[in-house]
Amino acid sequence: MTHSENGFFNEFGGKYVAEVLRRPLDELEVAFKEAMADSSFVSELETIQRDYIGRETPLLYAKTATEILGGAQIYIKLEGLANTGAHKINNAIGQCLLAKRMGKKRIIAETGAGQHGVATAAACAKLGLDCTVYMGEVDVRRQQPNVAAMEMYGAKVHPVTSGSRTLKDAVNEAMRDWAANPDTTHYVLGSALGPAPFPDIVREFQSVIGKEVKRQAQERNLDVEALIACVGGGSNSIGFFAPFIDEQKPRLIGVEAGGIGPGVGENASRMTGNASRDGILQGYKSRFLLDEDGQALPTRSISAGLDYCGIGPQLASLGKSGRIEFTSALDDEALNAVKFFAKNEGVLFAMESAHAGAEAIKLAPTLPKDKAIIVNMSGRGDKDIFITCPVFRPAEWKEFLISELERLNDSKDIHEAELMRK
Ligand SMILES: *Cc1c(COP(=O)(O)O)cnc(C)c1O
User: Out of 3.40.50.1100, 3.90.25.10, 3.40.50.720, 1.25.40.10, which CATH number does the structure's domain 21-52+87-199 have?
Assistant: First the structure.
């Protein structure tokens, strides 16, 4: 099914929230439906998608990769060319525009690795909205480049000190803030999950990816066998798949983080792993990695964006029905895919997106040459230098960091800048 029915995708989804959040969620649902039926809103959204995000993003024929693998033609949707470097801006801009229409001047968001925080902060800067991003204290420390980017865009980053001080706790804080300030504030949730109507809203704003791909594939007369996307919460995949869900073809393939192996705590495989269960967490029913008491299990992935214990309810439902096939890629397979597409296509995949790239490398040789497969490169890999460089060039990278530290310690300019801040 392409839309929820009263917030449900078969048994998944729903709105399992405290009473105080029901009204803001109901109001949001009404406002979203009205906005999408209003041609002036849609045209304003299309203009900003074109001029600010840089849509449409290209569909690249990966000629060399195709020849090397010797099977189906590989095409790459270059979503990483969107402003800010990934698909998350599609949702952030859409929701911020909606918030403005609802008369809200203040935006809050949760972020784990910081990618959604950066996208939301940028969207708020563009649209003149006040922005607060909740981020676990542990993540704030680990993700300083993204914290700095959010602050450059003018956002306030609020470190969360409760619980495990990571994403889950940041979501709880954001919900608490929204419950206390529903009239002034909109909560921009970052993936196609959470309580209804967020899974529907996020899918619709991300479906621009799939709509463009459908047109681009038709223009080139491609015989598309499969679409492949990585799946964290599920926003890039469901947006990419959305216009094809009700059709028999193409195959839709979601790739989860296989981490370092199949053991509990070694991956983030909610659909393919052996520790996954149906559960209700953070306002929605879906598939989660949970222990027997229903507590979230630890997850692991080389890509921060796939490292989460839950998956969007629509994906859980379409996985169960079989319309979406799920598989996973290991950390090492994703790293190899980064290298493969960089060297052969001049395209640097984000670690998340490289999970989809890894599946394309496996699938293409098994298919005939007149078929096409399309990989969504949800983001570009510039952000991942702190992960890829220590793996690809460990000694040189360490030396570089040490010399950078020395340079900073010696720099007169930086001492002066610090004094000025105080
Ligand atoms: C956040 C992120 C993801 C995972 O999120 P989804 O909601 O599953 O799309 C994937 N790729 C990139 C580049 C990301 O930043």
Answer: 3.40.50.1100
pTM to 2 decimal places = 0.96
- Summarised one tens digit per residue, pLDDT across range 298-354 is 999 999 999 999 999 999 999 999 999 999 999 999 999 999 999 999 999 999 999
Q: Is the CB of 203 under 6 A from ligand 1?
A: no
Class of domain 56-84+206-386: alpha beta
CA 46 to centroid of ligand 1, rounded, Å: 22
Model pLDDT for residues 169-216, shown as the tens digit of each residue:
999 999 999 999 999 999 999 999 999 999 999 999 999 999 999 999
Question: Does the CB atom of residue 305 touch ligand 1 within 6 A?
Answer: yes
Q: 334 C-alpha to center of ligand 1: Å?
A: 14
Please check whether residue 196 is in contact with residue 29, taking contact to mean a CB–CB distance below 8 angstroms.
yes
E-state strands within 96-237? 106-111, 130-136, 156-160, 185-188, 224-230
The rounded distance, in Å, linking the Cα atoms of 200 and 31 is 13
* Three-class secondary structure of residue 110 per DSSP: strand
Identified catalytic residue from 4, 15, 77, 110: 110
CA of 306 to the centre of ligand 1 (A): 7
Relative to the CA of 193, which ligand 1 atom is closest?
7
**303 Cβ closer than 6 Å to some ligand 1 atom:** no
- In single-letter form, the type of residue at position 383 comes to K
